[in-house]
Amino acid sequence: MRALIIEDEVPAAEALAQLIVEVAPETEIVGTLESIEESVEWFQSNPGAADIVFMDIHLADGSSFSIFDSVEIHIPVIFTTAYDQYALKAFTVNSVDYLLKPISRQELTRAIDKYKRLYASGEEMQTVTPKMMENLIESLRGGGGYKRSLLISYKDKIIPVLVDDIAIIYIECTMVKLSTFSGHIYYLNQTLDDVMSQLDPRRFFRANRQQIVSKDAVKELSTWFGGKLSVALTVSFNDKIIVSKARAGAFKQWLSER
């Protein structure tokens, strides 16, 4: 069995690799990847090089579900996640399984045994499609219950900021900030991963590690060197918003789905 690990925390990736080999000594770890961009490039360059993927849901540059927007994955995927197990159970199908962190030897053995049974039976592995990922995301959020507002600490108060008013969420000087269409800027006490998990991905896109943009705020796109995209907003924003070549196609598709 050739296994690929997609995990942005090095200690967690090393621990998982060790546990996989302990549970299934015949396993060869063919690679350990840390980001969406790196993963997309690996799948495009190494078709058929892995038999199974262990994939963390949250990566440094966004949700790993974005990988499926750029490449088709025809092998079983086992997600590693801290999400509620009951939300995930509905999606334990041929090609999608899950392991709750911290990963136990017992649960890892269960997942690998399931893979071996399916492989031995000769049953055709179902392709993991973007639609399957969309359904999984909706399940993880309780049927699509995205936030309508975010609670912001402002001076000595806590105020709600409507999601409809958000133009961009970004990191500046290690701080997470939110800018509204009216130009107000607020600080957030959450990571970009945490914020993105609360927002409807049909309306917001993780452009890169530093920025989440609202579809309503996108004014125009420009081609950038290396196949990347430069994004201009309808509101004032000083930094460049660059979408990588690996995610450019997914971004344009997302933007076209009005």
From TrEMBL:
The modification 4-aspartylphosphate is found at residue 56. Keywords: Phosphoprotein. Gene3D superfamilies: 3.40.50.2300, LytTr DNA-binding domain (2.40.50.1020). Residues 2-116 form the Response regulatory domain. Residues 150-257 form the HTH LytTR-type domain. PANTHER family: STAGE 0 SPORULATION PROTEIN A HOMOLOG (PTHR37299:SF1), TRANSCRIPTIONAL REGULATOR-RELATED (PTHR37299). This is Response regulator transcription factor. It comes from Candidatus Aphodosoma intestinipullorum.
